[in-house]
Hints:
Number of domains: 1
Order of helices and strands: HEEEEEEEEEEEEEEEEEHEEEEEEEEEEE
CATH superfamily: TolB, C-terminal domain
Largest sheet: 9 strands, antiparallel
Distance between the termini: 15 Å
Shape: globular
CATH class: Mainly Beta
CATH topology: Neuraminidase
Structural class: mainly beta
Strand order of the largest sheet: 13-14-15-16-17-21-20-19-18
Amino acid sequence: MSNPGRRDFLINAGLSGAGLLAFHGFSSRFSLLNANASDAPTVVGYGPLAPARTKNTGELLLALPPDFQYTVFGKTGKIMSDGRPTPRAHDGMAAFRVGSELRLVRNHEINNYIGKPGVTLAPESYDTLAGGGTTTLVIDPKTREVVGDFVSLSGTLVNCAGGPTPWNSWISCEETVLGPRRYKARDGSDRGGFEKRHGYCFEVPAKSNSIVSPVPLKQMGRFEHEAIAVDRKTGIVYLTEDFATAGFYRFVPRKRGQLGAGGQLQMLAVEGRPNYDTRSQQKTGATLPVTWVDIANPDPPEADFDTLAVYKQGAAAGAATFRRLEGCFYGNGTVYFTSTTGGDKKLGQVWQYTPSGKTQGSLTLLFEVTDAAILNMPDNLCLAGKDKLIICEDNDSGIQTHLRILTSRGEIVDLAKNITEGFQTREFAGVTFSPDGQTLFVNIQVPGLTLAIWGPWDRF
C-alpha cells in the first residue's frame, strides 16, 4: 500500500479537483485540506497491504492490511444447492438478515447479445433466451462460508448492479435495452432477438427460497440501469444510468414499499441552470441547488431502438447530464453515487445528493480523480460506519484493481488489492457489509468469485 502523508496525498492527487470538502451528513463538517500543513497526520488507514491467503482454501487472492482475514466461495461453475452451476460475471450484491440466517443476493451481469435457446438460468424465467439473473447465497456467519445457494431470478439480461430496500429485498437492474428487435452493432455483430424487452428493474425478496416470479418494474424506467438506493425515510428510490450521457433519477412510489404499484420517475436538474453538464469543469466541494423534472413516459416504445429514449425526455425538460453513473448508496440521510469516467481527466467522480423537502435538494462533488494511481474508475460503493466510503474500482486500462476508502477528510487509502493470478486487473463489484457490520462481502467479477473480509474495522 502506498502510504503518503497528507501533504503528499494532496500533491499526488492534485488539490484542484481531487481533495474534497464536506461529506454533508457525516459525523461532522470538514473544510478543504490545507496543502501547506506541516503537522498533518500520516494517511495510513488500516495499514500497509500484504498478500494474504484465504482462511478456507489457502489461495492467494487479495493483499490486505495486518490482522484482516478472508474466505472465498461462490465460484463460477461450482454446483449450487439447486443443482445448477454457479453463473459467471458476479456483480452487484447486498447482504440481508433473514430470521437467523445471513443471506447474499448477487447479480450476474450476463449479456448473450443475441437471444439463443439454452442460455437461461432456469425454466421459471422472464425471458428464456436471456442468460442473466441473480443467485441467493446462505452464509454461515461463524465460518463465513456458503451453506446453501440457488438461482433466485432468471431470464433477465446484464444484471449489473441494483440495491437493497428497507423491506429486505434486492432490486436487480438491467444495464441494456435489448429486446425482440434484431439489428447489427457497429462491429457488425448481431444484437437482439429476445422474447421480451429488457432495460428494467426486478425485485427479489431476500427471504425467497426459490426462483421469484419475475415482474419488470416498468414505471421505474427502461434505460441502461446501474444501481439504486432507497431513502429509508421516504421510500423514494434513486437510480443511476451507465451511459456516456446519463441522468440521475428518482422514483417516487405511490405506496411506500410497493414499487409494483407504480409511481413517478423523475430526473435531477440544477436550479436556474437548465441542461447543466456535470461531466467536466466542476469544482470539488461546490454545492449546487437542484430540483426534479418529471419523465412523462418511463417505458417509451422508442427505447427499442434508442438507448437514450428516457434520458432525452429529462434533457428536454432541462435535466442535468452526467457521465457513466454507476454505484449508488443511501446513508446518513443522503445518497452517494459515482461517475465512473466523469471529470476533466475522465477518471471518475464521487457525488452526493442531499434531499431537502419533497422536491428540492443539493448536489455536491465530493471527489474528482486526477491520478489513476490514487483511485481508478470508482464503481460500486458502500459506507463503513458513518465517515468512510468503500469504493470498488472498475477498470478498462489494465491497472491492478483495489478496494479504496474515501474518508470524510478527503483522503484515499487502500483497503484491499486484487492479486488473483491472471485476473489482477479485473474489477471488484458488489461491495456490501453484513447487517452487523462485521463482515465485508465483495465480488471479483472475473473469474467470478465472492469474498468475505473481516478484521479490526474500528482500527483506522
